[in-house]
Amino acid sequence: MLRDPLGKGPNLSFDRAPETRRGKRSWLHLDLNTGDQQGEVERLVGLGVRRYPWRYPPDADCVVLEDPDANLFCVVEDPTES
Questions:
Q1: Bridge-partner residues for 33, per DSSP?
Q2: Which residue from 12, 29, 33, 48 has the least number of CB within 10 angstroms?
Q3: DSSP annotation of 46
């Protein structure tokens, strides 16, 4: 995890994927943390992303979206961001 020491910029987390995503040579998946998940999802959908049909566990704290180039990313509810 890379964190902005001043707490003003985004945090980046890097994890190794166990396998390559089908149809792509590399895989980049972003998690966007926000204190207003619903508002951020609505804003992003308004910009052209779509909701991805994901099977969410009961305790899911994220919404999976797909950008126009078919890259998946998550909007994560993070109460520390509000």
A1: 76
A2: 48
A3: H
